[in-house]
Each structure stands twice: as C-alpha cells, then as structure tokens.
Amino acid sequence: MNPLRYRGKPRLGTVVELLRVTDFLNQRLSDVNLPFIVLHGSADAVTDPDVSRELYREARTLDKTIKVYDGMMHSLLFGETDENVEIVRNDVLSWLLARSGGETRLQ
C-alpha cells in the first residue's frame, strides 16, 4: 500500500456523489471526442484498471493513449519509486510534446 494514501473514513456525501458521477460518466464514455491519455497502475487498489480500459475502448476519439504500469499503485507520482515516477513523467511529457508541436526529444 502507498504510505501516503488517505487513511480516513470516506464521508457518505462524498461516496454518494462519486457513485452519481460515475453512473453519469459511464453513460457518456462514447461521447468523448478529445485527445486524452489514461495512466493507471496495475496494482491500483482504489480504481479498477478495467475502468480505464473501458474508457479507452468506448471513447470515439482516435487520438487516445492508455498506459497501464505493471505493479504501480493508484498514485503514480507520489508513493512510487523515483524511477517509476520518472517513467510516468516522461510518458506524460512525451504525449504532450507530440501534440503541441514541441520538441519530441526529452532532455
């Protein structure tokens, strides 16, 4: 488990709102028509990686990327090893640079 994770109890209002928004979004996955990247850890105990895979499959946009990082947890930039954080950061930067006309070589 990620030592930096939230350890408090979820509030009922937060849970209800998350369920409502999740249902709303699930009904509209095929409406997604903007470029996006989904990053997910395969060891995520908070959010099922299959949900990210479903978004990737259902979204109608052609410019979409999914990366599921083997063995990584929910918080990809906090609580992971420095090496793993660097991998994720480089993937995000490469994705952004490829779409912004920026230099594609990381320094």
Features:
MAG_DAG_Lipase; alpha+beta; about 110 residues; two-stranded parallel ribbon; about 40% helix; Hydrolase_4; AB_hydrolase_fold
Describe the structure.
- It comes from Vigna angularis var. angularis.
- This protein has 107 residues and is an alpha+beta fold.
- The protein has a domain at 33-100.
- Helix content is 41%, strand content 11%.
- It has helices spanning 12-26, 49-58, 82-100, and strands at residues 36-41, 64-69.
- It has a two-stranded parallel sheet with strand order 1-2.
- It is flat and about 45 Å long.
- The N and C termini lie far apart (32 Å).
Write the layout of secondary structure elements.
Blueprint: H1 12-26, E1 36-41, H2 49-58, E2 64-69, H3 82-100
Parallel strand pairs: 1-2
Count of individual helical segments: 3
Looking at the structure, what is the overall shape?
Answer: flat
Compute the separation of the termini in Å.
32 Å
Question: Helix- and strand-based class?
Answer: alpha+beta
What fraction of the residues are assigned to beta strands by DSSP? 5-15%
Beta-strand segment tally? 2
Task: Supply Rg.
Answer: 16 Å
Major sheet: arrangement of strands: 1-2
Let me know the average pLDDT: 89
What's the order of the H and E elements?
HEHEH
Q: Percent range for helical residues?
A: 40-55%
Largest sheet: 2 strands, parallel
Give start-end ranges of low-pLDDT stretches: none
Would you kindly provide a brief summary of this structure?
With 107 residues, the protein is α+β, with helices and mostly antiparallel strands. It has helices spanning 12-26, 49-58, 82-100; strands at 36-41, 64-69. The longest helix is centred in the C-terminal third of the chain and has 19 residues, at 82-100.
